[in-house]
Amino acid sequence: MRVVDFRSDTVTKPTPEMRHAMAVAEVGDDVLGEDPTVNRLEALAAEMLGKEAALFVASGTMGNLVAILAQCGRGDEVIMGDRTHIFNGEGGGASTLGGVALHPLGNDHRGMIDPDDVETAIRAGNIHYSPTKLVALENTHNSCGGAVLTQEDVKSVADVARAHEIPVHVDGARLFNAAVYLEAPVAELVRDVDTVTFCLSKGLSAPVGSVLCGPRKTIDEARRWRKILGAGMRQVGIVAAAGIVALQTMVHRLAEDHVNAARLARGLRGIPGIEIDPETLPTNLVFFKVTVDSPMEIVERLAESGVRVFARHPMWRMVTHSDITTDDIDYALDVIESTFREHATA
Length: 346
Ligand SMILES: *Cc1c(COP(=O)(O)O)cnc(C)c1O
Known about the structure:
By secondary structure, this protein is α/β, with parallel strands linked by helices.
């Protein structure tokens, strides 16, 4: 059966070139800093993002966590949007493991937090407060429909934080989607922030891993936290090798995913029972509202036809990625349209 899996870009499989690079990767003990392939990936990532140093980590969640642990202590707090992955999708790890408080501010529909709100929220110098030690942004913004923050957006928040000598972190799980969308160098997008995490395992299609980039001192501290968390891995160059291929070969093609997402969104717009905001579809995440009775029956019907979607009712999400072609989009639209029509008349 033809299967088109739109649930996430995390389902992407490594390319043949990645598998080859993994097979022949030169390796060493990375805890001792002796894995040449990991060192090469970290140097490449730091260079592409315009940062001093980088750290290969197991996941985006770990990248955000060690970034927070490296910059905040017990009783400190981090400011972030209330729709961010750090606030909603990481098990409260910073609080659980680091005693760090999460201080959420309202995200607007574009994934931004208001710099004035940040100014008001920053706290220090009073024993009643948990002092603010970090401000975090997310780009692209997952739950805001893959919305893109521009360099000016990022700078407007960073300027406020920096006036208080507070560092800024970007959860850039899909940062390269933002850069490709804006047709801007990725380094420019993060030039005003201190630390940034991006995922190799999403649209860039590597099997495992994320990278945290930032100042050497912060990265050294994050490396200590990674060890404490039990993720000091040994001959992990076998995995990092795929990450290098991801950065070298999979960035520019993200534009295809954006074109496919726009095609998907256009096609979905005409289907009765689906409501989709035409304004919020800039990258590879297509969110829409489903307004039929018993929607989970449709999810199952679709899966039986090989079209897999992520449904957290009433919002559904479909993600385009390297394992989905334009022809797959047209196939899926046909299946979705007929399934919704049959469901309406059943
Ligand atoms: C996926 C994602 C993460 C976490 O990545 P994992 O590798 O799944 O831990 C972090 N932030 C955002 C915005 C994400 O979409």
